[in-house]
Fold:
Amino acid sequence: MTSAASSSEAARARPGLLQSGVVWAIAIAWLLAIVAEATGRGRLLHHDALAHSHLPLWAVLGLFLLAWQFMIAAMMLPSSLPLIRLFNRVAAGQPRPMQSKLAFLGGYAVVWSVFGVAAMVGDLQLHELVERWPWLDEHHQVIAGSVLVMAGAFQFSSLKDRCLTVCRSPGLYIMQYYRRGVRAALNIGVRHGLFCMGCCWALMLVGFAAGVANLWWMAALTAVMVFEKTAPGGDRAVKPIGLGLIGLGMLVLFVPLVAGVLSSG
Structure:
């Protein structure tokens, strides 16, 4: 038996290896978020701090992307575990199962990394607008409240409904798109990453606005996304959640005390 064949058989014999790695990645990401919250170091990687750090753009984006990967692992991977488990099983019989599984996760990560960079670049432009518009500089709650209202409104959109339907049906997704091979696995990861982003981009934008290490916002938004995508009746909670986000956004817009409490949390 060749060494390649032995490696392939060993990978098939450990179908849960990658799944265990994903669970560990989630746990480590949350541990780092807790440490960052407890020590206050997480605020150094908040988009506001990075925007005013006077670092070159490449350094700002690099530091942000580093923190963003942990945020993706902590917030997005838990809601995608059913699909990851299913892909882990069906890909175990491939000639290069581990490479295919890593390519699948890599495609997923690429989609959310591109979203993160776009959000950060947009935020840098927003900071320039705030510096040129004194009124907006004095009313930061307008930005936070608007993001919450927008996220709530998106809960009522047809795009949210379509993408959530795909995310809640990992078996149907695998049956439709699964192909053998590393390139096919990458394509499956990218494609599902796009559905995932279509479902959760507005909620993740709320998390981005709150900061990449704001523990309470991360926990609340993760719970919402996991419930929507995996819990029985999670799809029926989408519109009530949207109403709650809109209501919270209106409070932030018109009750400055609420904005202060939420930003300090």
Observations:
- Residues 97-132 form the longest helix (36 residues).
- The chain has one domain: 3-264.
- Residues 1-13 have pLDDT under 50 and may be disordered.
